[in-house]
Amino acid sequence: MTKKITKKITKAVFPVAGLGTRFLPATKASPKEMLPIVDKPLIQYAAEEAVAAGATELIFIIGRNKRSIPDHFDKSFELEATLEAGKKTKMLEDIRNILPKNVSCIYIRQAEALGLGHAVLLAKSVVGDEPFSVILADDLIDADKPAMQQMTELFEQQGASILGVEDVDPSETASYGIVDAVEVDGPNVLELNGIVEKPQPEEAPSNLAVVGRYILTPEIFTCLENVKPGKGGEIQLTDGIAALMEQQKVLAYRFDGKRYDCGSKLGYVKANVEYSLKHEEFGTEFAQYLRDLTK
């Protein structure tokens, strides 16, 4: 049997134009994606995950007051000169190697907050007719093999759009897009029959929630262009995916890893605590501090 030939995914889209109102006043002048988990901002974790999955073009959909994101991934001559003069070699290496040299960053302005689907649609001119990934930085996933790498490997086998999903408590379905899906390759790979945006528990088709990881085929752009805008003129990505399902197979994938909802204050604090416990520089000392604190 001839092996299916599938294009590699080299483009990753990061919708980062949101206002981050749940973290005000911290996000009044700084993007929520620049909030640190210990010593790295959320957007860097997301970019590293994309690069580990093979991305070489990172497409950031940004809004006003987001200049610190391009600045973070840009070269800082003054800072590098200061660190070099102070012989702070480790810090110098860290900021010089935020991204590999073969990775480029592209920034597209979303002038109005018109929904996640609209943000993804803005990437069309750069993505073209290739499959691509979408990563929402405030969903931080800790995994031995990065979640997006798991999904790109599945894409290479299946050649279909994939939504990252996880089981949530049935009482939480109203906070997520919930999928109606059937297993096609064990319990972790499912084919979608439908997707419902934020259903009440009694109306939810399952408790499998879509989280901030997607691999999408380029046909999604035509679907999004034809989506009828909803409240506030917003274009929902879930509506585009529902339309895509009418044309081609769409999969859901239960990734292996632990997700932290860093769009919520509690999830953000949990991520900082658990990443601090694993930190090679002070993890042991921090664990002792927590033990002493809780005596």
UniProtKB/TrEMBL annotation:
Domain Nucleotidyl transferase: 16-275
Naturally occurring in which organism (per UniProt): Methylobacillus methanolivorans
Pfam families, A to Z: NTP_transferase (PF00483)
UniProt-recorded name of the protein: UTP--glucose-1-phosphate uridylyltransferase
Keywords: Nucleotidyltransferase, Transferase
PANTHER family the record matches: UTP--GLUCOSE-1-PHOSPHATE URIDYLYLTRANSFERASE
One example GO MF annotation: UTP:glucose-1-phosphate uridylyltransferase activity
Domain of life: Bacteria
Stated family: Belongs to the UDPGP type 2 family.
NCBIfam families: galU
